[in-house]
Amino acid sequence: MRLQRGLLVPLLLLAVTACGGGTSGSGGTTPAASGAAGGGAKTKIVIGTFNDFGYQSLYQEYEKAHPEIDIVERVAAAEEHHRRVATNLATGKGAADIEAIEEGWIGQFKANPDKFHNLTELGADKLASQWPEWKWKTSQSKDGRQLGLGTDVGGLAMCYRTDLFAKAGLPTDREQVSRLWSTWDGYIETGKKFAAAKLPKTAFFDGPIVMYRAILGQAPTGLYATDDTVVVETNPEVRAAFDKTIEAIGAGLSAKITAWSADWNAGFQRGSFATIACPAWMMAYIQEQAKNAAGKWDIAAIPGGTGNWGGSFLTLPKQGKNPEAAFALASWLTAPEQQAKVFRAKGNFPSTNKLYSDPVITDFVNPFFNDAPVGKIFSQSVATMNAQYLGPKAGDINTAINNALTRVEQGKQTPDEAWNQAMTEVKKIL
Questions:
Q1: Which of 23, 100, 344, 362 is paired with 376 by a 20 to 30 Å CA distance?
Q2: Is 216 in contact with 238 (CB distance < 8 Å)?
Q3: Within the chain, which residues score under 50 in pLDDT?
Q4: Model pTM score
């Protein structure tokens, strides 16, 4: 799951003091709630997540089936959460029994596998077949230790406003819309037609960050080779994603809104942009921010037809006092049945591949998005995607490139100037 994308600091290197908040938060026992079965002490399992994993009803279900377990969730924004986890690991105290780690950060934590339980020693090897091989390996350290159980993946589609398309004289049917942009060139050409309608206070897409990340997420190789070599300057796919986004900006199609800002949230509410590249987790974000636009949004295929951006893992730091109980809970939360429930309730698309042909997913439609067959759309996207290797500084590198795109959009630099500055910043990051 990925809902927050901004500046990413080198977490483990900078983490030198524990975050405030009193108690460590790692597992232990708490007095049983009044009326608990047997009246004995309960085992407390603390789980640290970011934004909304959609687990609240699942916690209640699990506690009902396991009255000896007391689940405590602590939630923060993505950057704050990962920074806190890094601090806790570096200082040796404060980590939860279960910590969610997003794919943009997983490379940094895999570099310190000794801080986590090897889940195969707790029985995860028996569960491995639930996930595609690439998802399983993404949370695996270089020495083969399994550090996480996969939650969701960010299969790509394109969300669009049917009412704004209609006003601009464009088709609104999702199949027809998908045919408009089988490629990103087609997407830009459609954007030019939209812009020609000159709708007041509305642009074709939100801003450069989401578009760039979607294009990059379709490439077989992204920022890293599998040996942890940074290939930003030698992999033409990275510059191509940058240049295609610059082309869309140059065509006057961007609303010039920074992703995950207050203006971005308001833009969903006001209809400030007609399209946005849409990883599966973006559905939950749009539904929360644009409650006034239910039924006006729809979902078409992403240009290129496939791709991935996002997805998370549940890990068990060694600081936790109840690894067996924590593993049992993490295994249950990431089981196919629970992943299907989260998708239908929140939109986070399952990473367990057995569901991609299951009617519980493929037959699911989302009323908010004009009854779009979201299960089918995202299943098709994930089934054909290329899984990129994610190195330890991927988040920092993408931040440098995102900032470069923003400087171009703001008229502060030419594309070449912005790119060259970003490459200089990347060298400093490494």
A1: 100
A2: yes
A3: 1-38
A4: 0.83
